[in-house]
Amino acid sequence: MNLLLKLALVSPCWLSMAFAADLNLTPAQMQALGVRLEPLQAASSTLQSAYPARFMPAPGQERVISTMQEGLVSRVLVVEGQSVKAGQGLLELQVPALLDQQLALLKANSRAQLAKAALLRYRQLLAEGLIAGKKVIEAEAEAATAEAEERAASTALRLSGLSAAQQQRLLSRQQVDSGLVIQATQSGQVAGLKVTPGQRVQAAEELLRLISASSLWVEADVPAAAAGIFRSGQSVPVGNGAAEAVVVSVAAQSGNAQSVKVRARLKSSLPGALPGMTTTLGEASAQSASWQLPQTAVTRLDGKTVVFLKAATGFAPVEVQAIGDGRTVRVSGAFKGGELIAVSGVTALRNAWQAER
């Protein structure tokens, strides 16, 4: 697949339909507008079309792992870039406040069990006609209250990071522990590990991030003049062919910005790739006859990228699709070489041409 889009030399018929007639300027007018011409020169045969890029998490695929309690990091169980499964331990904290929360759950669980047993007993006595129905109603209210208190204590522990399975072990062992193992909330890769053993962390402080490795995107800042080589839905190579990605978006050029953001989604996971790591987006190179122009020769007109060609009848805007690095643009097409192209005063030339329409 060749990402290089050819420079389109537009026929006079096309120009008459898409643009107004050529703009005829005298030498004095050209000088006043700062218009300078240069003959089109051949560039090297290799035309670069790969741009520096970085991996980034896909929207909604990044999870921040933190703790709701202040504590001390006792062990870090993973390393940067490690693949983990949901529920796997990531690090261990010593959280003194966890002791009181665990005791609260144990007490609430005991009260709930006693209240449930009392309710069963009162219902049996009522069935035997030994007590009034009021006693059963009171026992039902007591059991409901105790159950609600147990749920509240369990929720508080869950918010502190103690999973349902860990709470069940606590209830079966009846033994409190200030150690809290922070577990992975999803399968993915560890990224942005921010803590080390012995470090004290505050409540809600970010500890690390988990990224779904199968949902990485690639983002590149592409020179505005070259953005036309990318289109939504297009398959493009990543890392000089190490992987393939599908272009998701090509941002519109904003004002006089020299570059636009191109984002693409990896088709499959790439071993070792992590958010923030650098790569390339696009083909490394392609062999093609090409022509080189200063970046100043390219402008935007009616939503198209154009250069102004000096013809016998005046200046004509010619639509191009070019690849540039911010200083020069390199294009390929049916040029013979030597054609005169405006390389300065292009903005003024464009404004004058629009005024004549």
TrEMBL record:
Domain of life: Bacteria
Gene3D superfamilies: 2.40.30.170, 2.40.50.100
Cellular component per GO, a single term: outer membrane-bounded periplasmic space
Coiled coil start-end: none
UniProt-listed SUPFAM superfamilies: HlyD-like secretion proteins
Signal sequence annotation: 1-20
InterPro entries, per database record: MFP_Cation_Efflux (IPR051909)
Keywords: Signal, Transport
Gene Ontology terms: biological process: copper ion export; plasma membrane copper ion transport
Listed name of the protein: Cobalt-zinc-cadmium efflux system membrane fusion protein
Organism placement in taxonomy: Bacteria, Pseudomonadati, Pseudomonadota, Gammaproteobacteria, Moraxellales
